[in-house]
């Protein structure tokens, strides 16, 4: 117990979105997928090609076998079955896959890990292990939840993460914006996570998560997603509402425009987007769906910091650019 001395930052309490028994709190989503494989006693994990390579790298580092499967243009896994001693990761892409969709996909396999890194608010499925990443939805330096049968086992083997040493970027973002020294500080935190072993969620992250207004986040993201659908539906090469339902809280609006120069135009106007997982352009055939997505998708920001004005400005830049190349 400590009494007195200086006053620390304070956050509201008892707001944590996932609480109660049966929940493992870890330091990252990739660590959460590894932990899920341990709980399922699986030595091999089937990953979709279209996924961040940090998941693959972490599993390989932890001596978990990795195999891959492709997806089609409707995001269906192109794999019929997996060995009984393996697990399969099914990604809830962009946070726009509804519950019935996930239930349908998961029913086809045994030992299913739902990767909800892009879908923080998606409800856990009873017969699967669900993994959530907090950093994609809330301003925290680390943090993941793993929910499902047996997920609280083996936690005593993991050290407690400490994130305050590399969390300055969260404060600098407020005063300096997202470029320059705040971005450099963020990269230091990313490097810490990349080099880290599986650990329990840091106390700092849990304090922030415990004081977060989740109702506001859900409301704003759904409103902004609807605005984006109206703004970009006429030019988008994919349909983000394909599996969308009233419970979906999207991470981003996935916009696919077949132009190599659009992203540079957005960056030039301080609209900081980026293609996801461009490493796939060097490892997959050009006629694969994953190659096409990696080359052209722009994950338009729709999070709780923004309103219609920011999305209108983004649309203005995009349409001016497209009109200029006709």
From TrEMBL:
SUPFAM superfamilies: PLP-dependent transferases. This is DegT/DnrJ/EryC1/StrS aminotransferase family protein.
């Amino acid at each position: 117990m400590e009494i007195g001395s200086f006053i620390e930052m304070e956050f509201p309490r008892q707001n944590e979105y996932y609480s109660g028994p049966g929940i493992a709190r870890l330091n990252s989503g990739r660590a959460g997928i590894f932990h899920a494989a341990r709980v399922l006693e699986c030595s091999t994990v089937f990953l979709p090609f279209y996924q961040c390579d940090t998941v693959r790298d972490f599993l390989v580092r932890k001596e978990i076998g990795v195999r891959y499967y492709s997806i089609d243009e409707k995001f269906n896994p192109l794999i019929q079955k997996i060995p009984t001693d393996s697990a399969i990761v099914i990604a809830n892409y962009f946070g726009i896959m509804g519950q019935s969709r996930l239930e349908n996909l998961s029913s086809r396999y045994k030992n299913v890990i739902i990767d909800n890194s892009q879908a923080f608010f998606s409800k856990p499925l009873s017969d699967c292990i669900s993994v959530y990443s907090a950093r994609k939805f809330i301003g925290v330096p680390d943090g993941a939840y793993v929910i499902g049968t047996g997920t609280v086992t083996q936690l005593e083997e993991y050290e407690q993460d400490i994130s305050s040493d590399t969390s300055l970027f969260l404060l600098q973002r407020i005063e300096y914006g997202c470029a320059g020294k705040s971005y450099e500080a963020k990269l230091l935190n990313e490097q810490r996570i990349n080099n880290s072993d599986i650990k329990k969620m840091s106390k700092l992250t849990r304090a922030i998560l415990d004081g977060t207004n989740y109702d506001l986040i859900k409301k704003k993201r759904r409103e902004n997603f609807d605005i984006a659908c109206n703004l970009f539906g006429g030019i988008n090469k994919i349909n983000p509402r394909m599996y969308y339902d009233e419970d979906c809280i999207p991470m981003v609006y996935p916009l696919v425009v077949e132009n190599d120069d659009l992203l540079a135009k957005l960056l030039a106007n301080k609209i900081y987007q980026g293609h996801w997982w461009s490493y796939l352009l060097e490892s997959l055939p050009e006629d694969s769906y994953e190659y096409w997505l990696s080359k052209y998708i722009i994950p338009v920001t729709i999070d709780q910091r923004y309103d219609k004005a920011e999305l209108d400005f983004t649309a203005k830049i995009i349409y001016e650019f497209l009109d200029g190349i006709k």
